[in-house]
C-alpha cells in the first residue's frame, strides 16, 4: 500500500518540486499545496501540533468548565490576564487556532484517505501480482520435493498448492498451467488496509458526532431541596445551556420530587473517618403532569433516565430551614436556604437575603456547621464532621438596600456588603449570631429576629439531553475495530512455482513477502511448508535420496530483506 | 459494603516492604549481571588480541564463544539499514547477532549461561509473588479492587510492570532490561509508600463503579507496556549512537551494550508493543468517556486528566505515524515514544497531585 500511496511518491523529491514552483501557476500552486497538506509528514506534524495545542487548556482555567476561576485569574493577573485572554487561552478548545489545527488535520486526513481507498479498492479487485523470477530472493523461501511415482505432476501440484493456500484463506490466482513451470500467486490481509481506512474515517466520524452532540443537545442544572419538585420546563432550571438547534418545545414536562437524600459517611477506618461512602436520593417522578407517580433511586454513577434526558446527582449539601421576622413582626422569609459546602466537614457558606423585610431590608452572611466545635484559643467555632451531630449557624447580619430591585441579576450565593450597614458580627458589641436548631435570636435595633427551625439536605442535579453521544460511541467502536485490524492483521503475498524434474520428481518452491510490518512471516512460511508437506504426504525433513540437493542458499534471507524493504 | 480488615491491611504493608527489599536485591543482581558480562567480554577481547584463543583454560567458555563470533564484527557487520535511514520493516530475520557487536534481533535465549541474570530473575519472581500477595491483601482488606487512590495505583501498577516483564521473559530474553524495569518498580513502590501512603478504606461514591475496575485496570496495563517500550527506546538511542560510532571505526566503549539487540530490532520490538499499548490506551480513553458520562453527565469535558489522556493518545498516534513517514523512523520515532512516556508519567504524578479537576480523588493532598 505504501509504495502506491500517491503522497509518498510525490513528496519523495521535494527539491524538485521547489525548483519547479515558479512555473506552476495558480492551479499548480494549489495542487502543490494540496499535496503538501496531504503528505504523511504534514499529518504527523499536525498531530504533534494538536498534542501541544491541547496542553495550555490544562494549565489555565477554562471558561466552559470553570468560569469563576477565569474571573479570579483575570483579577489576580491584571496585565498578563487580558493578553492570555486575547490568545483565547481560557477557551482553548473553542479557540480559532485550535480549530484551525484540527480542521487542517482532518482535511489532510480526507485528502490522504480518499486516494488510498481508491487504490486499495482497485488492488482488491485485481489478481495478485505476477510471480517473481527468483522466489529464492524473497524474505522467506522454501522447497518441497514430491517423490517420483506419486502421480503428482507440476500442474497437479500447483492446483494442490492453490487449494492449500485457499484453505488458509488466501486469494489465489493460478497461472502458466501447462507450460511446465506453472505457478500460483496468492495474497491475504486486505482487511489490514480496510481497517486503516475505517479507522481514519471513523476518527472523522467521532469529530462530527461530537460536534452534532454539542449542537443538538442541552444541559441544565437545578438544586432541589428535600421536599421540593423540579419540573422540566425552562423556568424549572437554575442554569440552562441549550445547543444551537435547541427548541424549548422539546422539553418533556416531567417532574421529579426529591423525597430524601441519604448520606453515609465512613465511621470505620480511622484513616478515612468521615469520608463520604454513599449518596442516595429517593425520588418521586412523573412522566407528565397527569402521569402516575413512580419511586426511583438516584445515585452517583447511576443516572435516572426520563423524558429523553438523563438526571445526574452531581452534588449535595445542607439547606438549614430558617424564619426571619422583620421589625414589624411579620414573617419576611421562611424556608430552607441552600448552602455551599467548602470542605470535607461540610463547613457550608450561607447567604440569606430578605428584601421583603420592613422597615429595612435584611441580609445575612455566615456559615452553617454540621458539627460545630469551639476552638478555645480563638473562640471561633469550626466544623469537625460532615454529619449533623452539633449543627450550628454562625451569621453576621446587615441592613440597608440589598440592591435586588434595580434589575441587575445577582448571584444568590453572594451578598455585596459594601453598601450595607452591619448590625451583628463577632467583632461588634452586639456579637455574632450563633444559633442551634430550635433557637431564635433577636436582632439589635428593632430589626426583627431570626430562628433556626431545622435542617434539610439538597441535591444538585445535572439534567442532560444528548442525542449525539450514541453516534460518538458507534464511531469510536468502529475506529477501535479498524485500528486493531490495521495493527494486528498482516498483509502478505505468497508465490508457489512447480516444475517436473527429468527424474520424475516434482519440484515445488515457495516464497513469501510481507507488505509492511510483519514479524510473523517466518511462522507463516513454516506453516505453509508444513501444510504442503502434509498435502503430498512428504515427510517434513525427508532425507534426500540422491544427495544432490543443493543446500538452501545462506544469503537468501539477507537479500530477501533488501527486496522487502525496497518494496516500501 | 464489607468492612475494612485492618489486620489484612497491615499484612499487606508488611508484604509490600518485603517485596521492596526483594526487588532491591534483584536490582543489584541485574546490575551485577551487566558488570560481569562486560568483564567477560573485555577479558575475551584481550585474549583474542593476544592470539591465544585456542589455549584451553585461559578464557572462560562463554567469553571464547563471544569472541569467535565477534571478531569480524567491527568491519563488515550487518547492523541493519536503520536507524538513521528508513526503518526496515521486519519481514523476517534481519540480524542474528552473529557479529558479536549486538545481540540477535529475535531476542530469544542464547546458549551462554549468565548465572547472575538467572539469580536476578529468580529473585524477581519471588519478589513479584510477595508483591502480588501484598496487592491481593490490600484488595481483600478494603473489600474492593486495589486501585482506588495513588498509593494503590502505584503499588498495583508496579506489580503489573513486574508481572508483564516476567511474562515477556518467558518468551523473549529481555533480561538486559532488568536493571531498568526492576529499578522502576522499586521507585514506584518507594514513592507509593513514602509519598502517597493512604490507609486502606472505602471508595468515595464517585469511584464506586464497575468502570473503575475496567477503565483503570486497562490504563495500568497499557502504562506498564509503555514503560517497557520507553526502556527499549532509550536503549535504542544509546545503541544507535554506539553503532554509528563503531561503524566509523571508533573502539567499542560500552561493552555491556553487546547484550542488547541492535537499534533496529529494538525499534521493531517496541513498535509491536507500542501498538498493543496504543490499543489499550484507546480503550482507556473510550471507557473513561463512558464512565464520565455516567458519573458527570458528559462524556468529554476537557478536564485536566482528560486533556492529558488525549495528549498521550495523540503523541502515540504520532509515533505510529512516524514509523510510516520517511525520515521519521529510527531515532525520531524513539524520541516520540520517550516523549509519550514522559506524558504518561506526568499525567500520573504531576497532574494527579498538583492539578485540580474532577479527577482529584487520588487520595493525596486533602
Ligand atoms: C486525526 C488524525 C489522525 C489520527 C488520530 C491518526 C491515527 C493513526 C494511527 C493510530 C495509525 C496507526 C494504526 C493504523 O495503521 O491504522 C495511523 C496510521 C496511518 N495514518 Fe493516520 N491518523 C490521523 C491522520 C492521518 C492523516 C491526515 C494521514 C495522511 C496524510 C494519515 C495516514 C496514515 C497512514 C498512511 C497510516 C498507515 C501507517 C502504516 O501503515 O503503518 N493519518 N494513523
From TrEMBL, chain A:
Sorted UniProt keywords: Cytochrome c-type biogenesis, Membrane, Transmembrane, Transmembrane helix
Domain of life: Bacteria
Listed transmembrane segments: 43-60, 97-115, 197-218, 470-489
GO cellular component annotations of the record: membrane
Record's keyword annotation contains Membrane: yes
Protein biosynthesis keyword on record: no
Cellular localization per UniProt: Membrane
GO biological process terms, semicolon-separated: cytochrome complex assembly
Protein's membrane topology: Multi-pass membrane protein
Chain spans, region Disordered: 541-568
Biased composition (Polar residues): 550-568
Residue ranges of every copy of the ResB-like domain listed in the record: 40-524
Pfam families: ResB (PF05140)
Protein's UniProt name: Cytochrome c biogenesis protein ResB
Species of origin: Arthrobacter livingstonensis
From TrEMBL, chain B:
Region (Disordered): 78-106
Keyword annotations of the record: Cytochrome c-type biogenesis, Membrane, Transmembrane, Transmembrane helix
The keyword Membrane is assigned to this record: yes
Predominant subcellular localization, coarse grouping: membrane
Transmembrane segments: 15-35, 116-137, 149-169, 176-198, 210-235, 273-292, 307-322, 334-355
Domain of life: Bacteria
Domain spans labelled Cytochrome c assembly protein: 147-359
Pfam families given in the database record: Cytochrom_C_asm
GO molecular function, one term: heme binding
Protein name per its UniProtKB record: C-type cytochrome biogenesis protein CcsB
Organism per entry: Arthrobacter livingstonensis
Source species taxonomy: Bacteria, Bacillati, Actinomycetota, Actinomycetes, Micrococcales
Amino acid at each position: 500500500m505504501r509504495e502506491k500511496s500517491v503522497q509518498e511518491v510525490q513528496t519523495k523529491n521535494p527539491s524538485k518540486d521547489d525548483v519547479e514552483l515558479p512555473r506552476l501557476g495558480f492551479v499548480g500552486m494549489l495542487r502543490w499545496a494540496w499535496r503538501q497538506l496531504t503528505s504523511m509528514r504534514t499529518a504527523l506534524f499536525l498531530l504533534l501540533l494538536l498534542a501541544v495545542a491541547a496542553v495550555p487548556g490544562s494549565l489555565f482555567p477554562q471558561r466552559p468548565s470553570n468560569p469563576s476561576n477565569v474571573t479570579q485569574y483575570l483579577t489576580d493577573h491584571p496585565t498578563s490576564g487580558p493578553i492570555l485572554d486575547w490568545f483565547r487561552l481560557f477557551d482553548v478548545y473553542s479557540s480559532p487556532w485550535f480549530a484551525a489545527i484540527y480542521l487542517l488535520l482532518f482535511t489532510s486526513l480526507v485528502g490522504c484517505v480518499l486516494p488510498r481507498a481508491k487504490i486499495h479498492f482497485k488492488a482488491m479487485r485485481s489478481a495478485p501480482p505476477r510471480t517473481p523470477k527468483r522466489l529464492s530472493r524473497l524474505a522467506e523461501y522454501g522447497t518441497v520435493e514430491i517423490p517420483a511415482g506419486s502421480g503428482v505432476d507440476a500442474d497437479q501440484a500447483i492446483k494442490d498448492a492453490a487449494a492449500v493456500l485457499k484453505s488458509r484463506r488466501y486469494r489465489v490466482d493460478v497461472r502458466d498451467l501447462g507450460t511446465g513451470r506453472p505457478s500460483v500467486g496468492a495474497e491475504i490481509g486486505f482487511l489490514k488496509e480496510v481497517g486503516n481506512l475505517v479507522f481514519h474515517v471513523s476518527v472523522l466520524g467521532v469529530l462530527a458526532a461530537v460536534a452534532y452532540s454539542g449542537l443538538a443537545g442541552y444541559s441544565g442544572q437545578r438544586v432541589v431541596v428535600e421536599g421540593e419538585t423540579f419540573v422540566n420546563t425552562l423556568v424549572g432550571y437554575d442554569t440552562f445551556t441549550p445547543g444551537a438547534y435547541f427548541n424549548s418545545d422539546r422539553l418533556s414536562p416531567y417532574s421529579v420530587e426529591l423525597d430524601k437524600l441519604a448520606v453515609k459517611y465512613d465511621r470505620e477506618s480511622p484513616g478515612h473517618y468521615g469520608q463520604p461512602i454513599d449518596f442516595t436520593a429517593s425520588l418521586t417522578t412523573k412522566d407528565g403532569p397527569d402521569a402516575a407517580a413512580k419511586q426511583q433511586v438516584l445515585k452517583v454513577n447511576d443516572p435516572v433516565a426520563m423524558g429523553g434526558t438523563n438526571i445526574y446527582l452531581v452534588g449535595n449539601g445542607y439547606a438549614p430551614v430558617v424564619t426571619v421576622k422583620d421589625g414589624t413582626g411579620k414573617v419576611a422569609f421562611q424556608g430552607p436556604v441552600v448552602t455551599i459546602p467548602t470542605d470535607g466537614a461540610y463547613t457550608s457558606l450561607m447567604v440569606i437575603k430578605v428584601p421583603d423585610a420592613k422597615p429595612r431590608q435584611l441580609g445575612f452572611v455566615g456559615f452553617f456547621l454540621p458539627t460545630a466545635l469551639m476552638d478555645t484559643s480563638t473562640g471561633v467555632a469550626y466544623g469537625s464532621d460532615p454529619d449533623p451531630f452539633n449543627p450550628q449557624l454562625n451569621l453576621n447580619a446587615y441592613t440597608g438596600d440589598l440592591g435586588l430591585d434595580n434589575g441587575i441579576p445577582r448571584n444568590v450565593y453572594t451578598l455585596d456588603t459594601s453598601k450595607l450597614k452591619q448590625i451583628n458580627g463577632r467583632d461588634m458589641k452586639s456579637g455574632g449570631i450563633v444559633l442551634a436548631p430550635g433557637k431564635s435570636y433577636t436582632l439589635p435595633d428593632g430589626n426583627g429576629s431570626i430562628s433556626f427551625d431545622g435542617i434539610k439536605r439538597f441535591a444538585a442535579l445535572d439534567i442532560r439531553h444528548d442525542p449525539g453521544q450514541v453516534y460518538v460511541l458507534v464511531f469510536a467502536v468502529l475506529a477501535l475495530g479498524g485500528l486493531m485490524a490495521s495493527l494486528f492483521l498482516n498483509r502478505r503475498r505468497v508465490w508457489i512455482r512447480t516444475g517436473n524434474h527429468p527424474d520424475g520428481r516434482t519440484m515445488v518452491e515457495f516464497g513469501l513477502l510481507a507488505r509492511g510490518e510483519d514479524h510473523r512471516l517466518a511462522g507463516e512460511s513454516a506453516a505453509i511448508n508444513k501444510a504442503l508437506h502434509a498435502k503430498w504426504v512428504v515427510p517434513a525433513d525427508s532425507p534426500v535420496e540422491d544427495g544432490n540437493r543443493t543446500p538452501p542458499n545462506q544469503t537468501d534471507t539477507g537479500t530477501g530483506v533488501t527486496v522487502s524493504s525496497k518494496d516500501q | 459494603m464489607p468492612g475494612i480488615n485492618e489486620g489484612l491491611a497491615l499484612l499487606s504493608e508488611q508484604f509490600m516492604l518485603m517485596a521492596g527489599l526483594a526487588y532491591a536485591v534483584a536490582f543489584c543482581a541485574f546490575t551485577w549481571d551487566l558488570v560481569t558480562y562486560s568483564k567477560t567480554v573485555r577479558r575475551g577481547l584481550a585474549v583474542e588480541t593476544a592470539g591465544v584463543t585456542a589455549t584451553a583454560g585461559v578464557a572462560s567458555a562463554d567469553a571464547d564463544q563471544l569472541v569467535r563470533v565477534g571478531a569480524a564484527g567491527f568491519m563488515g557487520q550487518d547492523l541493519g539499514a536503520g536507524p538513521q535511514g528508513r526503518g526496515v520493516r521486519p519481514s523476517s530475520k534481519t540480524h542474528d547477532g552473529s557479529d558479536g557487536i549486538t545481540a540477535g534481533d529475535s531476542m530469544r535465549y542464547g546458549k551462554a549461561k549468565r548465572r547472575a541474570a538467572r539469580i536476578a530473575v529468580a529473585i524477581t519472581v519471588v519478589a513479584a509473588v510477595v508483591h502480588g500477595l501484598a496487592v491481593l491483601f490490600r484488595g481483600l482488606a478494603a473489600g474492593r479492587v486495589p486501585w482506588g487512590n495513588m498509593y494503590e495505583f502505584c503499588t498495583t501498577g508496579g506489580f503489573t510492570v513486574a508481572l508483564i516483564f516476567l511474562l515477556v521473559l518467558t518468551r523473549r530474553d529481555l533480561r538486559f532490561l532488568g536493571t531498568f524495569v526492576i529499578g522502576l518498580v522499586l521507585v514506584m513502590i518507594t514513592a507509593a509508600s513514602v509519598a502517597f501512603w493512604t490507609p486502606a478504606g472505602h471508595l468515595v461514591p464517585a469511584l464506586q463503579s464497575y468502570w473503575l475496575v475496567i477503565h483503570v485496570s486497562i490504563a495500568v496495563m497499557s502504562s506498564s507496556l509503555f514503560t517497557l517500550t520507553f526502556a527499549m527506546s532509550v536503549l535504542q538511542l544509546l545503541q544507535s549512537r554506539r553503532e554509528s560510532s563503531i561503524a566509523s571505526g571508533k573502539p567499542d566503549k560500552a561493552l555491556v551494550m553487546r547484550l542488547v539487540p541492535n537499534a533496529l530490532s529494538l525499534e521493531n520490538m517496541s513498535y509491536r508493543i507500542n501498538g498493543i499499548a496504543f490499543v489499550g490506551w484507546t480503550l482507556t480513553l473510550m471507557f473513561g468517556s463512558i464512565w464520565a458520562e455516567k458519573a458527570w453527565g458528559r462524556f468529554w469535558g476537557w478536564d485536566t486528566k482528560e486533556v492529558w489522556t488525549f495528549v498521550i493518545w495523540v503523541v502515540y498516534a504520532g509515533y505510529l505515524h512516524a514509523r510510516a513517514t520517511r525520515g521519521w523512523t529510527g531515532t525520531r520515532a524513539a524520541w516520540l515514544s520517550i516523549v509519550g512516556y514522559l506524558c504518561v508519567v506526568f499525567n500520573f504524578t504531576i497532574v494527579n497531585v498538583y492539578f485540580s479537576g474532577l479527577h482529584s480523588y487520588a487520595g493525596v493532598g486533602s
